[in-house]
Amino acid sequence: VxxxxxxxGATGDRSMQRSMPFPPYDGRMERVHRAARGAAAxxxxxxxxxxxxxxxxxxPTLDARIYAASEHAxxxxxxxxxxxxxxxLAAVLLLIVRLRxxxxxxxxxxxxxxxxxxxxxxxxFPTDPGxxxxxxxxxxxxxxxxxxxxxxxxAGSLLAHKGRLLRDWALFWAxxxxxxxxxxxxxxxxxxxxxxxxxxxxxxxxxR
Length: 208
Hints:
Elements: H1 4-19, H2 25-37, H3 40-58, H4 78-101, H5 107-124, H6 136-160, H7 165-182, H8 185-206
Helix pairs in contact: 2-4, 3-4, 3-8, 4-5, 5-6, 6-8, 7-8
């Protein structure tokens, strides 16, 4: 039989163990949670989108009116393109951590998880040059890219303003149509993805 002092001592030891961090894991996770609670996610969205768009300036040999933005992954600006995609992925992961910490359930957290997987997939399986698809990675790349765009649009719309998903889908298609009409398939893709980026930025800001 434990004495009252023994029970109290055991309880105190357990509470002390719970309060003591386990370095370096707890310290790192605390920094991640602090970043997730702050404005890091929306800043990363802006930085990532800017980096991807800047690829057209660094490597103008890939005409933005014709070629998909992802073709920079196999061009002279591949380092900047992968930096931008990696930054977007970091923003998505921070949003997942934020929503998990807030115990938020529903479709938005699931869409972010799907988007994170799809972003990794589109990097692992690069596109083929031009719009012709001949290789297995080239066939998988547009699938992952489409899944990532749809998932990010869904999550961004839900986090930015619930109940306006149909309107956001309409904007996505409208901007793509205008870009295709004014410039070509490359412009269509970039303008449609600009809508996705804007929604993700607004969702990151308003979910804090």
